[in-house]
TrEMBL record:
The chain crosses the membrane at residues 21-43, 55-75, 84-102, 108-126, 147-167, 179-199, 219-242, 254-273, 285-304, 381-399. GO terms for molecular function: transmembrane transporter activity. SUPFAM superfamilies: MFS general substrate transporter (SSF103473). The keyword Magnesium does not apply. The keyword Membrane applies. It comes from the Bacteria. InterPro entries: MFS, MFS_trans_sf, Sugar_transport-like. This is YQGE family putative transporter. Keywords: Membrane, Transmembrane, Transmembrane helix.
Length: 429
């Protein structure tokens, strides 16, 4: 066992310097991600008891993300990518400060906090996606996301439980408010540490080319459709666990415990899958994640009680990392192929991809709001997830076609380079 652990450490240390620094940066920042994703939504739910406000908060976040992706593209001409990456991480703490300073959670205040959080995610994900694309190749991307997911899931065991029970242990409402302020300070400190780690990398900016396009290769439109399907779940799934648990279980401590059930097993599974699989296994991994997500949605919809929520969280702990472990390498491989064929900056595809996600997120959140206002929040919490999970199952066939066409394009492009005639330099003058 010890020898296996040493071998895994040696394998990680054999990776390039920037590979390791990016993993470590994201590892540190991962400590605050459960706070941002879960407990901010719980804060809104606790202080408003209105699930629609949580979803509106999420919509403002998702509106800020693509706008900041676009802004980030221009700022990369003037600032090093490490600075923009760090700003993204630190803005998450700023957004929480704005939220906690609101005397009343009205839509304007929630919207401002949401836009700032969206800017945080925009700077963070735009630069993180580019760096992950730049420092990995198709052969080691499963390993990269396997390592990331392993640490993310382990952290998801510790942080939700610790913070959830810390909030709940405060008892009185005024003490709970103070607990949220302490957590906000904790988030700020961690984002500073993550920024310091980030500056240890030798990251370089993308080559400055045009990055806004409206016409792409047909393969890219298929990937955008896959992004739309992915965005459907993201539309409100980030905050759905908080809404379900606060409504059906009622306390942040239960929220943290439910988040942690099965997380250790899931973490080990993700590392092993990332370490042992290759590009040929991605459709199967993706399909497994989508099926687990559908099972989670069905459990919640059929039971819609405390047991249903726990089953939902257990399946979700497997579904989300499996889908991400497969999705990002699929996306990056398509960008690798098309950026060579169309001779465009990789960042152009990263920016455009965010538009596909945004449309999906908007439709997903819109589905929830439509059911909530048209029927009730209970109907929305119960059935919106099922609708989205069923629609997402079509991603299996879409991803299979994308991988097949991407491979054919890549093979054809490589063959063209090999068979292209080599011109005599004398005769080309």
């Amino acid at each position: 066992m010890l020898n296996k652990l040493k071998n895994e450490i040696a394998h990680f240390n054999s990776q390039p310097h920037n590979f390791r620094i990016l993993i470590l940066t994201n590892l540190v920042y991962a400590i605050v991600l459960p706070v941002i994703d879960i407990f901010v939504a719980a804060y809104v739910m606790r202080n408003s008891n209105d699930p629609t406000k949580v979803v509106i908060y999420q919509l403002t976040i998702y509106t800020g993300i693509p706008l900041t992706f676009l802004l980030n593209g221009y700022l990369l001409k003037y600032f090093n990518i490490r600075k923009l990456y760090s700003i993204g991480m630190m803005l998450s703490a700023v957004s929480m400060v704005v939220m906690m300073s609101l005397k009343e959670l009205d839509l304007t205040g929630i919207g401002v906090a949401g836009i700032i959080m969206g800017m945080s995610f925009g700077f963070y994900w735009a630069n993180r996606d580019y760096l992950a694309l730049a420092i990995t190749n198709d052969g080691n991307r499963n390993y990269y996301y396997g390592v990331e997911t392993f640490f993310y899931t382990i952290i998801a065991v510790i942080i939700p439980v610790a913070i959830g029970w810390f909030i709940e242990s405060q008892g009185a409402a005024e003490k709970v408010q103070r607990a949220y302020l302490i957590i906000t300070g904790f988030v700020f400190v961690i984002t500073v540490i993550a920024s310091i780690v980030c500056f240890r990398g030798n990251f370089t900016n993308p080559v400055q080319k045009k990055f806004i396009y409206f016409k792409f290769h047909p393969l890219w439109y298929r990937l955008l459709f896959l992004a739309l399907l992915k965005g459907l779940a993201q539309g409100f799934l980030v905050t759905a666990p908080a809404m379900l648990i606060m409504r059906l279980l009622g306390k942040e401590g239960a929220l943290g415990t439910a988040q942690s059930i099965g997380a250790v097993i899931a973490a080990v599974m993700m590392y092993v899958i990332g370490r042992m699989t290759g590009p040929q296994h991605r459709v199967k991994i993706f399909a497994a994640g989508l099926i687990f997500f559908a099972l989670a949605a069905l459990a919640n919809g059929i039971l819609f009680n405390a047991t249903g929520v726990i089953i939902f969280m257990m399946f979700l702990l497997l579904a989300k990392p499996l889908m991400d472990l497969a999705y990002f390498p699929i996306q990056f491989n398509v960008i690798d192929v098309l950026s060579r064929i169309e001779k465009r900056s990789e960042f152009a595809y990263i920016l455009n991809h965010e538009a596909g996600l945004y449309v999906g997120r908007f439709l997903g959140a819109g589905t929830f709001l439509l059911l909530a206002y048209g029927y009730s929040t209970e109907v929305a919490l119960r059935y919106a997830i099922i609708i989205i999970a069923v629609l997402q199952l079509s991603s299996i066939w879409v991803s299979k076609r994308i991988i097949k066409e991407s491979k054919a394009l890549n093979d054809g492009h490589e063959e063209d380079k090999i068979t292209a005639p080599v011109l005599d330099p004398v005769h080309t003058l």
